[in-house]
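Before going further, learn to read the protein records used in this course. The integers have meaning only within a learned vocabulary of local backbone shapes. The record below shows the convention in full.
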Amino acid sequence: MNGGVAVRRIPPREPSGELAAARGAIAALRDTAHVEDVSPHTRARLGDAAELLADDIARVEALVASCGAGGVPPATGAADHLLRSGGKRVRPMALMLAASCFGAVTEGARELAAVAELIHAATLLHDDVIDDGDERRGSPTARRVWGNAVSVLAGDMLLVQALRIASRVGPRETWSELLATLGELVDGEVVQLRGRSALVADEDAYFAVVRGKTASLFRWALRAGARTTDAPEPAVDALGRFGEHLGVAFQLVDDVLDYAGDAERTGKTLLADALEGKVTLPLLLALARDESLAAELTGCRAGDAGAATRLAAGVRAAGTCDVVRARAVAETERAVRELDVLPPSAARELLAAVARDLGARAC
């Protein structure tokens, strides 16, 4: 027992490659947090995830890996390059925790968890081409190794694999919601791309991008996980709102880290958003405080690395990174409150712990 809630114990055994990867993903999630911002209780609960879900995540890892290898070279090489580079596996973990709130994690839940990760990976392969990305998770991006065309086709391959699985798993609502989510992902990317050509100081447009590109897949994953069990519809809706708030908080922190992160820990090129001329919330708020930053943004869009450095310094000096972090914390607490309608369980506690950990992360 931990905090009055039973946690399923898995007998020790020699870890397979997939199980080792699963434990590595959970450790990566736990280690992202600011130590001073996360209580020992929360960090201990994240450790419990290794016991509650490790076998399930290992099976998901194996399915994801087989899908990455299930196409034609060199697309398979580009996909495998990304899939082997690590990651927190937050979306599949959250999906299976949602299922665990109402029963056992079924094979269908594991397959849908793989779908969530495959779609996420596909968007990363595409994003790195759109953004001219050079580094992800501390390694060269697939487009740098194989080229833009192969990276795009590798993303398409993973998306097809995800749709094949999703078409035969789960109720009709899960399938129709997935198609709607894919539409939101594309729309969010288009709105963001359109916004690079002109400075539009509009929080509504920013959050439309965040909800489309990031929060929509979190929302789908939580709803899909709940639907693999006998979860009542009000609980499915609450978990969907939890996922949306979680996704918004996740992206808010991501946008802060572009200006105030540690490149060695994030595994990403700092100031990437600034160099691409993206107007994320830290910059949007800083522009309202210091109009002179608009000239530096124009320089960034013209490819001036010096302007990006000055712009980042201006954003940090404006103090808006702290403001956005506070908003991420508030969004996280909105997410956690949605869990109140769920019955008490270890899975519910872990969902809250994961949300708070992601809201406080440093990479």
